[in-house]
Design brief:
Blueprint: H1 2-10, H2 28-42, H3 48-53, H4 57-69
Helix pairs in contact: 1-2
Length: 72
C-alpha cells in the first residue's frame, strides 16, 4: 500500500523501496498528498518531519509498522 501511495504522489510506475522520496523528485506538495493518503488509508498520522527522517519506503514502512502494531 505504501508503495502505491508513493507512486501516485510522485507520478511513477515503480519505485525502489530504498530510494529517497525527495531524491525521486518529491517536494512539499507531493509530500502533503502522500501524508493525507497514508492517513486516509491507514488511519495513521504522519508528519512531514517523519518523511524527512524516514525518506524511503522501507524505513517509513518499518516505522509505521511499529506504530500500528502498538495500537492493536
Amino acid at each position: 500500500m505504501l508503495e502505491e501511495t508513493w507512486r501516485a504522489a510522485l507520478g511513477m510506475s515503480s519505485i525502489d523501496h530504498g530510494a529517497d522520496f525527495f531524491d525521486l523528485g518529491g517536494d512539499s506538495l507531493s509530500a502533503v498528498g502522500l501524508i493525507a493518503e497514508v492517513r486516509d488509508r491507514l488511519g495513521v498520522e504522519l508528519s512531514i518531519g517523519m518523511l524527512f527522517e524516514f525518506p524511503t519506503i522501507s524505513a517509513l514502512a518499518a516505522q509505521l509498522r511499529g506504530r500500528t502494531e502498538g495500537t492493536r
